[in-house]
Amino acid sequence: MTDPAAIDTPGLRERKRVATKRAIEIAAITLVRDQGLDAVTVDEIARVADVSPRTFFNYFSSKEEAIVGNTPEMPSEEAQEEFVLDPSPVFAALARLFSRSIATALQDQEVLMLRRTLMKSDPELGGRRWASIHRFEAKMVELIARRIATQNPELAHDEDVLRTRARLIAMMAVAGMRHAWLTWMDDNGEHGTLHSRLMESFGAMPEIVRSSV
What we know:
about 210 residues, mainly alpha, Arc Repressor Mutant, subunit A, Tetracycline Repressor, domain 2, 2 domains, 10 helices, about 70% helix, about 0% strand, elongated
């Protein structure tokens, strides 16, 4: 099984892609922070980021998406299959899954801090961000349901139980991810990486669920 902490050093092309995306995000967030959403255009964001409007649309479908960030992406098919077949308890398996997919996409603390501040000041943008999280959560429900059905064949044809369990686990997983992210952000990453925070949050979940507190 792939070690989630083992992250390959990106090549030059990937580093350029990440740098371009970051420049667009910072330009979009700072312009909207200073001028307001309605006053900012894609052309202006592209100009400040030093890219063409065409390049902008290679990364984001709209200025709103550049501001709130891309919808969280599902991990690779290989990682999903490993999760489905992983014999570990579900929260341990989810911690590894998120570490491989989401943690590596959420390491730029400057962008995250700028975005977090803007989301707090603009409820509409905050709502857009949550909408993207909910779409990701729905995909997680499908994946978790597949895992439950695979590892518990007796439940495979009980759609109501399957969906209920999968939805509850997915909601708890998103909450655990958010807790890890907020904890990491609040201490400015000084007491652990986002990966370690994810592992801590998901590691605590089973005990919390069993506890009467």
